Amino acid sequence: MFNKNKKPFSLRARFLMATAGVILALSLSYGLVAVVGYIVSFDKTAFRLLRGESNLFFSLAQWKDNKLTIAIPPDLDLNFPTLVFIYDDKGNLLWSQRKVPELEK
């Protein structure tokens, strides 16, 4: 295995190389866990914000005279007003946060 002219690494050198390898493996795995955790938490937070804002708009929405109006109180501060619907290319509603029959017609 080893060339007879080469001596094997000393115990101290082997210990230092093993320690460096373990630290490298832990650092790389921590980076992977941090990135995956950030992606998962970002998706959950974005979904929670969109759900909350869509619930707010659905509760403030009014259907009068074949028009959708949203009665926003004057003192309400809206940072990112959103109302999410997904339609196909033919204009059919594919997805909405909740079933709203007035908006599906």
From TrEMBL:
Domain spans labelled PhoQ Sensor: 8-105
Molecular function via GO: ATP binding; metal ion binding; protein histidine kinase activity
A GO BP annotation: phosphorelay signal transduction system
Gene3D superfamilies reported for this sequence: 3.30.450.140
Chloroplast found in the keyword field: no
Keywords: Kinase, Transferase
Keyword Kinase tagged: yes
An annotated GO cellular component: membrane
Alphabetized InterPro entries for the sequence: PhoQ_Sensor, PhoQ_Sensor_sf
Protein name: Two-component system sensor histidine kinase PhoQ
Organism: Serratia marcescens
